[in-house]
Amino acid sequence: MTVHNIGVMQGRLVPQEDERIQSFPRRKWRDEFSLIVKTGLGLIEWTLDYDGLYENPLMTQDGRDEINRLSSAFGVSVSSVTCDCFMQAPFWKCKDNNNQKKIIDDFMNVMEAASDLDIETVVLPLVDGGAIETSEEALFLISFFNKNQPLIKNLNLKVAFEIDLAPAPVKHFIESLPQKNFGVNYDCGNSASLGFDIQEEFFEYGNYVINCHIKDRVFRGETVPLGSGNVCFLTLFSTLEKFDYQGNLVL
C-alpha cells in the first residue's frame, strides 16, 4: 500500500552531498524513486540549489521528461519543490538592480519549469539567509507577489511561504496576499527550535497552511532524529486533524 500524501524531502534517502543535510543529490537523485517505493510512501519534494540551478533536471526539458518517466514507472509523485536556491540568493534582499533582475528572472524560470512538470506547490523559504528582517523586505515581497499573482494563477501554482516569524506577523503577511495562490509551509522542526507553540501558530494562520515539513529540532538547536527534539507530535497531529488538513506531509 502506498501512502500518497506522505513523502520525503529529496536527498533524504541517499548519502548527503558535501555533508549538507539538505541539497539536491546530483549523483543519486534517480535512485530515490525506487528507494521511496520500498518505504510505502508516495511523493518526493524536489529541491533546488542556486549553485548549478540550470543543471538541475527540473530546469531542463530532457530532465523533466526523465522525471516524468521515473514518476510513472514507480508511481511516485513530485507535487512540490522547495526553493532553497532563493534562500541562498534572496532577490528581496538584493541591493544591486541588475543582479536582482537576474535572480527574479531565475525565479520566473523556476515557476515555469514547475508548472511544466505539473508541480502544485512551490515552497519559498523565508528563513535563515532568506529571513524577513525588515518591514521593507516584507513590503517588497507582498508587492512582488500581488503583482505577479495573475501569472502564478495562469501557471496553476501555489506558493507556500516558510516563515520564521512569530504567529501574528505570519498571519498578517499571508493575509496580504490572495489566498487562492498563496499559503504557508508549516515546518514543525523550525517552529520548535524557535520556541513557538503549535496551537498558537495554528490559531493564527492554520487555515492558510497548505504544505507541512515534518522534522524534529531542539530548542535553539539543530535538526535531530524524530522524537528526540522539542516537537510535540501528538499536539501537531491532533491540531492538523482539528483543522482538517488535507495537504502533504514531507519528512
Structural description of this entry:
Helix content is 40%, strand content 20%. The strands form 2 sheets. It has an 8-stranded parallel barrel with strand order 1-2-3-4-5-6-7-10. The chain has a two-stranded antiparallel ribbon with strand order 8-9. The chain is of the alpha/beta class and 251 residues long.
How are the SSEs ordered, and which strands pair?
Elements: E1 3-9, H1 31-39, E2 41-47, H2 61-74, E3 77-82, H3 84-88, H4 97-116, E4 121-126, H5 135-147, H6 149-154, E5 158-163, H7 167-174, E6 182-187, H8 188-194, H9 198-205, E7 209-213, E8 216-217, E9 223-224, H10 233-242, E10 248-250
Parallel strand pairs: 1-2, 1-10, 2-3, 3-4, 4-5, 5-6, 6-7, 7-10
Antiparallel strand pairs: 8-9
Helix pairs in contact: 7-9
Overview in brief:
This protein has 251 residues and is α/β, with parallel strands linked by helices.
Structural class by helix and strand composition: alpha/beta
Give me the number of helical elements: 10
The averaged pLDDT comes out at 95
Task: Give the fraction of residues assigned to helices.
Answer: 25-40%
Number of strands: 10
Largest sheet: 8 strands, parallel, barrel
Q: Ranges with pLDDT <50 over ≥5 residues?
A: none
- % residues in beta strands: 15-25%
What overall form do the CA principal axes indicate? Answer: globular
Taking all Cα atoms into account, the compactness measure Rg is 17 Å
Largest sheet, spatial ordering of strands: 1-2-3-4-5-6-7-10
Q: What is the element string, with H for helices and E for strands? A: EHEHEHHEHHEHEHHEEEHE
> What separation lies between the terminal Cα atoms?
18 Å
